[in-house]
Amino acid sequence: MTTMAQQPKNSDLEWSLDSIQSRNQAVDFVSCFEGRLCVYSPSVEQCYTNYSLHFPSNENSKMVVLPNPYAFHDTFHGIVPEAVRDTGFHIIPGEMIGKTGFYVIVKYKSRDVKPVPIPLKQALKRMIRTRHSEDPFLPILAKGDLREFNTNMPCLHLHRVKLANLTRRSEFDKTSIKNAIIGKLTDLYRDADTLI
User: DSSP letters of 75-139?
Assistant: First the structure.
């Protein structure tokens, strides 16, 4: 059996916190979503649904995603980088806008469009409702998605999986990937009021 120490080194799972000013706040923030959103590694084309976050005490500027080595069925293979897209969606702490809880903000390319904060639970409900559409919204995290929205305020950027671009995967595999991600969203929706 593979132990944590024997797992192959994957730099996609080592996230630098160097560019984040308030690291303690960022650690507290991202820990609220530990295991609640899937994490993607483009170099090995894998998506992890069962993992833990580790913050090495000797390196306070790093976060390591540790997939559960005993839950191989919770890892999806063959997720090509072409199937993973940037969304512009960001989860932010409510305190950034003078509220409590978490919110989702969409950052548009045009600065003329002002982002409107949506309560996280409401945004999750909309995402879950896309499950039966031709192009379901399947959010995941990738290296670099923990960042600062503005000075001293952490946020999580969301990527998404486009099932139509998984041309090497069977319909059964695509359905499994969709169900796993939607399952995580449903659990997060259920727990959204108790995250803080």
Answer: EEE---GGGEEEEEEEEEEGGGGT-SSEEEEE--SSTTS----EEHHHHHHHHHGGGGSSS---E
